[in-house]
Model the fold of this input.
Amino acid sequence: MIAELGAFALSLALTLSILQTALSAAGRWRRSPVLAGAAQGAALAAAGAVALSFAALIYAFVVSDFSVSNVAANSHTDKPMLYKVAGAWGSHEGSLLLWCLVLTVFGGALARARGLPFGLKASAVAVQGALGSLFLAFAVFTSSPFTRLDPAPFQGASLNPLLQDPALAVHPPLLYAGYVGFSVCFSLAVAALIEGRAQTAFWPAWGRWVRPWALASWALLTVGITLGSFWAYYELGWGGWWFWDPVENASFMPWLAGAALLHSAVVTERRGALAGWTVFLALLAFSFSMLGAFLVRSGVLTSVHAFAVDPQRGLMLLAILGVASGAAFALFAWRAPQLKGGGLFAPVSREGALVLNNLFLTAAAATVLLGTLYPLILEAASGATISVGPPYFAATFVPLMTVAFIILPAGPLLAWKRGDLPGAMQRLAVAAVLALVSALAAYALWEPRKAFAAAGIGLGAWLILGSLAEVAERARLFRASGAETMRRLKGLPLGAWGMSLAHLGLGVFILGAVVETGFKAEAARALSLGQSVSAGPWTVTLDQVRVVEGPNYLAEQGRLTVRPSNDRGPAKTVTAERRFFPAGGQTTTEVGLDFRGLDDVYVVMGERAGGPAEPAWVVRLYWNPWVRLIFLGPMIMAFGGLLSLLDRRLRLGVGPRRRKAP
Amino acid sequence: MRRRLILLIAPVLALMLTAAEPAAAPDRPLADPAQEARAQALFEDVRCVVCQHEAIADSPAGVAGDMRRLIREEIAAGATDQAVRDDLVRRFGDYVLFTPPVRAGTWLLWFGPFALAALALLVILVRAGRGAVEAQPLSPDEERRLQDILANEKLRRDLDATSPHDGR
Done:
């Protein structure tokens, strides 16, 4: 009964979304606030209906209602409650419902947004409703999670054990919130194209309206991707954190486009320039999100993360992408020549720096797009199969971003319109010297010597010190009295803090990524009890192996001692498991992690290797120096985004209850 | 009834199958650390042919273990990195390397990103140049107004600089 209620609510949401589009378009056409208001009501009701439907699905998972085929395929009575709930979005159908939920909730938030002019808002609500209708129709007609099974099986097939991790509870919702949040930017961009404002005064305001949505989505996506990366790091047992896997790339493309959008929206907001480009990026970010949905769900690519879905439904997703993005970009091609943003600027200026930022971020996104789609296109066109993996991205993506990072710290120190490059360089001199010193020190002191890694450390230090130099400059550190500096620091707008933190977080990430990639060490050996294996400065001894029984798995659990090879430092005990899930017949590894400062000592229990007389287990040991910075850096970046979002100047239009004082 | 029986047996069968699958022989690193380092570097670039986007360096699959052994043997026999790669491509095709080949069909893949960045830079520079040309010289009247505005701005900046006295 509850499942039917869920299916009904889903259909209702589809009807409401269509209604939202029609009413809002009519309201815009007839300039009727009543119709537009009704459309906003429909948007809120649609969000409510999808939420109801989602709750029904979670209920079916919680009570293990195996007469619902999605529950039977993805759940099991023995599964812990957390994974029963999170299992609701562990499959294609369930995660699509989550996608629709986020889409309609953002639609509802857009409907409640204040301060937008009537026409723009009505158009945006209509476009958002159209997006909702497309995806809800796809869910209702091809991927309903509420289909019944008759007869119902006694037991479910359980969820893929790789997914049975607390991260499943938070990673997909955050990732989707980021992905789909860009839909509002998309809707606002299409609305701006429809409204076709030629007057220059329109664009700074539009930049201000679109920026909070872009910031929120980008920050959420940052956290979502980072969590996913951390999850893959400790769950897959490969010791790596980013594999340039096609599905990782699918989430990275909207992130790059979103990062470019954030920066170009600043130019549009502050100077009214780059309006067409900002609109383009807003369309691009959500198009990449939809492309990702297609890639992950169509089965066209092989990946650890892909949902196994039939090509039929993949084609329909491609059609949705084609209709939504095709229409939007066609409109863009038609209207863009008329978009006249004001604001002339010299090449050396804040605007110029942000244009360069956009150039490199977009080229980087294009690289990821090429690397992801090229094998598919080449195979379709010529039958040749190639693999595009980490070495390709190291040779293309990395140099492009490196140039961008070298330029980055100068950007915030340049004035709008016409900047003073020698002045900015002078103010960055200390940071540059210190960064150079850290690179040279890393080269001289860190064994084995690696020029690339040392240069990378210098680059990370350059970003961190450059951000600090920028804050110091704003606070007039050492040039004014201490009290004056404090006063200035307190007076800095949150947006400025947010930007500096985000750039600093990027530097922290680069430090971690470079040191981890350059100096990690690994070793694998078959160990009997009492034997050891060493990697880098660490030695791990296998003390004990026992069989433990989990709620829905059997595991061989190894207890191992991690100690520094030179015995200078405390020893710690970690446990690593190899789990067997009878329900699906799969085996997973639970990594043993010894967290040492910024480093991880990472231990994986492998299969049994020795004979019955002297049992042995293959133990893989990884030393991942500074790996924690890889996950800390993006969190700092996301926090910076959040701070910017809280900036007073951006609050307009987001908080429905907050009115601007006259 | 039979179906249910299969359902019951399946997990046991799976367990047996897992146990029966020959576990990859544990890796024996090469004695020469320099050679082993070269082998490890190659493992990162070689795709496990039965896995999903996994390098043989990471994969626990039996085939990956065999490929690692093959590469170690070739290196021990004195093959250069390039010879090992060529041999792998001959056996498994271009697909086996994570580094795509550079040939006419992949020029767009390899040079596209840089070409795009260069083209965009060119467009921006041309536009910036054209913008400079389009700027008309100011008339004497405009010049005077500009000077006024600049002077005012300077005045404002000076006020700003007297900050030790404000806020008290």
